Amino acid sequence: SAGCRAKVNGPPFAPKEALATFRLSEGFRIELVAGEPDVADPVAMAFDPQGRIYAVEMIDYPDDREPEGRIRLLEDRDGDGRFETSFVFADGFHFPTGVMPWKDGILVAAAPDIFYLVDTDGDHRADKRQVLLSGFNPFNPQLRVNGLLYGIDNWIYGAYPKYGPSRRNPEQFGKPGSPLHFPDHPEVPPVDIAQLGTDFRFRPDQLKIDSTAGNSQYGNTFNERQHRFGLWNNNHIRHMVIESKYLERNPYQSVASAMQFPSDHENQSIVYPITDRPIYIHESQVGMFTSACGNTAYAGGNFPAPYDHSYFVCEPVHNLVHSDLLTPRGATYVAQRSVDKAEFLASTDGWFKPVFTTVGPDGTLYVMDYYR
Question: pTM score, two decimals?
């Protein structure tokens, strides 16, 4: 019938068509960097020294089935800003969550392991796969190791969300991970980070594992002063004010928390979506942060004031990217909305699911859209 032949005006939209659904803060523009089929279901990314993108594809979420997660290698060979060349660098991961360049290859977080992958023959596919670090909690699909970042102190930092009891699925989601250890070096004592309930850091070159103050769910970022920020699904910014190594100097010093919540607009802040026909999972949290993730403290040097010291965080349930302006206050910061009663980036498309941000070598902000 004629009705069956009529064009459906989305969603879902093709990647180029989706650009028309965005509303962006004044003075900024948004461009397509890569889209399906070159990359699909992306949840994290990192640039290597050659300016190529390693993108984490979490294809199998949330089903507990065969591992279908992949790492895509994307190249912009003509220098136009569009990464038009794509390779499957590695596959066979279950719920991969993070990636970071390391030595001749990359590190990939996919609980219970952190892998080291290398392409030794130049065919754009990893032929060396080593489990570098192991023991992370693999039971809860939303509380997994992520956010691998190289610190100025030569430690690799990661977010390791604290597990908790589950009334609905205690057998699956209530179990902790194992002590973290280097599988190839049984002589190195394991460290039980899960029992501490903190994030972690490690140095694979020196076989060191350590806890680090604070705890983040899905996000990890440093600002230009190398202060670290995390988040939780309903709390979009956490500043890790003081590190564990300083607190450990005096075991008699009572510190309730090493984290400060610097938002001046509530910890679970109101958000301002513009979505047509929104789809909500938790109706009790409509209009507030309920899925904060993928944060970036901008230090790219290419944004105008006041965004040159801003903080970006994704909110996929409400189809937007929120922005705060960071102002130092004593040992911590105040995070103030950069836009009054609006968001930095929002979409009318209910399929727009921003989950990760990072700053590229060109000083721009890259946003990953899970688009489910």
Answer: 0.94
